Amino acid sequence: MMPLTIYPLLLPLIGGVLLLLARFGGLKLQRALSFLLTSGLVFIAVLLLQTAMDNSPQVYALGNWVAPYGIVLVLDQLSALMVLMTSVLAIGALWYAMSTGMDAKGSHFHVLFQIQLFGLNGAFMTGDVFNLFVFFEVLLLASYGLMLHGSGRLRTKAGLQYVVINLIGSTLFLFAVGALYGILGTLNIADMAVKVSQLPESEHAVVAAAGLLLLLVFGIKAAIFPLYLWLPQAYANASAPVAALFAIMTKVGLYAIIRVHGTVFGETAQDLAFYYIPWILGFGLVTMLLAALGVMASRGLREQVAYLVLTSVATLLIGIGLNTEAGLSATLYYLIHSTLMAGGFFLLADMIARGRGHFHDRFDSGPMMHRAVLLGGTFMFVAVAMTGVPPLSGFFGKVLILSAALTSDWFGWILATVLVSGLLMIIALARSGSLLFYHTQPHIESDGERCNRNAYVAVAFLLAVSPLLVIFATPVTALTDSIAQQLQQPMLYIETVLGTPAVTG
After folding, report:
1. Taking a C-beta distance cutoff of 8 angstroms, is the pair 38, 91 a contact?
2. HEC per residue, 189-218
3. pLDDT at site 505
4. Which of 45, 205, 231, 428 is deepest in the core (most CB within 10 A)?
5. Nearest CA-CA partner of 450 in 164, 99, 152
6. 3-class secondary structure per residue, 380-445
7. What are the E-state strand segments in 193-287?
8. Are 477 and 325 in contact (CB under 8 A)?
9. Predicted TM-score of the model (pTM)
10. Can you tell me the distance from the alpha carbon of 99 to that of 455, in angstroms, rounded to the nearest whole number?
11. SS3 74
12. pLDDT digits (tens, 9 = 90+) for 291-331
């Protein structure tokens, strides 16, 4: 029997092929199959996390070719958490797509959706840099199709920008991978860490340069300053379920930084140990300030949500940049909050836009929409959570990060940046809510859609994470503490990957 580690990849891959064949059976069959597959992925992800929490990292060698020569999948606590978050976000986005009929506005939505999940899960589970590149390409190819799903001039324009910037990123990724392989002779992450620990001093500079080039590539994926300009328009113009699923895309870049740089350039990397950390922290602070200004300057709600995604990326960068166990734990708590809340906010923004008719999501005074109290109350709930105002999870996440930063030399800058950006976001979202829900024009007859109850279920499902993270703060922080503790022991990961023998008998 195959180990559980391979199933997060097999299920969406086989599902994608089945859905391609199922299109001859009609949309209902595709929907039923897609929802069943994604629900199954949630179930498997829960089992994966349970397994990862109870055991040391587990390695699955594809074709029984062991590391560093073969392709290996590695299940540890961090990869299990990322797979679980991806599947939960996916089930909410998929339900919304089916409830609103967005999946019917183009070909192969469900096929691309499953292939996207295959690429995401592969990126979280792979144990070598080259296959990280391959899975990046798989998820990007699927995302190109999903980005353009439903067509439209602005969507096509934003999609082309998205494609171009990611093609540049992929090219740079190959350059970085080639340079590292040329020096180290391996691309297995664990083996790279061993080779860097034995590297002669004369080759430190070129490996450091290649590592920074790789950091640049991950920065493009994560949308770090000054590489984030593609994100606001791409996310704002994508269809709502696609934008919700894309909330995990920036986290792939952040995950890659933690996994690759945290392992290869960890404490055993001689003079190169953690040399990238000041870059992470500095760019995180700048990204946060500029993203907060973008939140204020946004002309529509979906664009504003896209800039809020950037502020969450910046907050996570600061947590990673602290480079402590407490900082990583706080980062992971905020990662769960920000990913699922951003996904839910994209869906809510779409419901508001549909309810306002031709006013769409622009910040113009429009007619009263159907179920305005429900949608307005939900907007206020999300605004409180996303801006970090008590008592929801955004506040707790930021407090945890600030607490972890108390011993940092950068604490003054971090505190000032978080407070100023938080204030700017509060002002911006208060203005947005006022324009959308209070300064309405009752004499204008609305041509908007009625509130879709089934679609609202997906919104409520994703937004429920915020109170749950507060109510279950103790077990959740125990979980993130355990993951952070494991990440602070890179030798455990390295020895497990390189020490796992081939299966015999």
Report:
1. yes
2. HHHHHHHHHCCCHHHHHHHHHHHHHHHHHH
3. 57
4. 231
5. 99
6. HHHHHHHHCCCCCHHHHHHHHHHHHHHHCCCHHHHHHHHHHHHHHHHHHHHHHHHHHHHCCCCCCC
7. none
8. no
9. 0.95
10. 5
11. strand
12. 999 999 999 999 999 999 999 999 999 999 999 999 999 99
- What six digits make up the tokens of 154? 């602005």
Residue whose tokens read 């990292």: 57
Low-confidence ranges of the chain (pLDDT < 50): none
**DSSP bridge partners of 61:** 72
Residue type, 411: F
The two tokens of residue 465 are 């994470």
Q: Could you give the 3-state DSSP secondary structure of residue 233?
A: helix
Amino acid at 431: R
- Report the distance separating Cα 504 and Cα 335, nearest Å: 40
| Dist. CA 321–CA 257, nearest whole Å | 11
CA separation for the pair 303, 116 (Å, rounded): 23
Amino acid making up residue 334: Y
Question: From the CA atom positions of the chain, what is the Rg in Å?
Answer: 22
Show the tokens assigned to 208. 């450091």
CB 281 within 8 A of CB 410: yes
Residues 6+ apart with CB under 8 A from 247: 89, 309, 339, 340, 342, 343, 346
Q: Which residues contact 198 (CB under 8 A, 6 or more apart)?
A: none
Question: Residue type at 120?
Answer: L
Closest residue by Cα to residue 35 from 93, 83, 100, 101: 93
376-407 pLDDT, tens digit per residue, is: 999 999 999 999 999 999 999 999 999 999 99
The CA-atom distances, in angstroms, between 77 and each of 42, 47, 191, 259 are 16, 12, 20, 12
E runs forming strands in 98-241: none
